[in-house]
Design a protein that fits this description.
Blueprint (H helix, E strand, L loop, with lengths): L1 H7 L7 H14 L1 H8 L9 E5 L5 H9 L4 E6 L2 H10 L1 H5 L3 E5 L12 E7 L8 H11 E11 L6 H9 L8 H10 L3 E7 L6 E6 L1
Parallel strand pairs: 1-2, 1-4, 2-3, 4-5
Antiparallel strand pairs: 5-7, 6-7
The structure holds S-adenosylmethionine.
């Protein structure tokens, strides 16, 4: 279990050599699920987007393509993730459409009420108390802003629960738990979807 546990634990906060390997794999490994999640964003045209727990930065890049007039701030508390996301989005950074920053969602220092859209792909499992962290997200969203959460575990699937036992600090939340935490954090207009054949979920809340 030693090396396997060390490797999969890199999903929580990629560090060092194993972390670099993990971040390189995540961009491709999460792509289909992330695109399914992004397809749930309808009838919005966000100008300012914040992509939280951005990992290797691929989803920030997809959001920039989907919303050609947008600016994306991608944040992650892992310096390995920040470096990879910066490299991945280098052209967009040069064009002034993207910035990648190191930051912890539990204590966001981004400007309040700035963002139209916040996204979180495969990351809330590791957030230290989702209610508290969702309140941080609410703080930086404009009134009317949207928060999209996408997870490949619905909190009840065998694989998710297996990893929850192996990775310290990981919690696979159910849709109901996420919805409740969003309400407590001040979100409304909450809607969710479950993939028809996989344990993938999206939960969307409005500020
Ligand atoms: C499993 S990876 C997912 C990366 C990317 N969103 C994707 O879907 O490929 C989880 C990411 O969330 C980041 N993360 C976890 N907890 C965080 C926190 N409290 N603040 C900021 N980033 C966090 C990790 O550093 C890691 O890069």
């Amino acid at each position: 279990m030693g090396l396997f546990k060390d490797y999969v634990s890199q999903t929580r906060k990629p560090e060092g050599f194993l972390g670099k390997m993990m971040v390189n794999g995540m961009n491709g490994g999460h792509a289909r699920m992330a695109d399914w999640g992004i397809s749930h964003l309808k009838e919005i045209s966000p100008g300012e987007i914040v992509e939280i727990g951005c990992g290797g930065g691929r989803n920030a890049g997809e959001l920039l393509k989907k919303y050609p007039l947008s600016h994306v701030t991608a944040i992650d508390y892992s310096d390995v993730s920040v470096r990879k996301a910066t490299e991945y989005n280098a052209d967009m950074i040069k064009q002034g459409r993207c910035e990648v920053m190191q930051g912890d969602v539990s204590a966001l220092t981004l400007p309040e009420e700035k963002y139209d859209l916040a996204t979180a792909f495969e990351t809330i499992y590791f957030w230290p108390g989702i209610e508290k962290c969702f309140a941080q997200v609410a703080k930086i969203l404009k009134p009317g802003g949207v928060f999209l959460i996408v997870n490949e575990s619905d909190g009840m699937d065998e694989t998710g629960l297996k990893f929850e036992k192996i990775i310290e600090g990981m919690k696979c939340h159910t849709v109901k738990e996420i919805e409740e935490a969003l309400k407590i954090a001040g979100f409304s207009r909450i809607r969710s979807d479950h993939h028809e054949s996989k344990p993938w979920i999206t939960v969307i809340g409005g500020k």
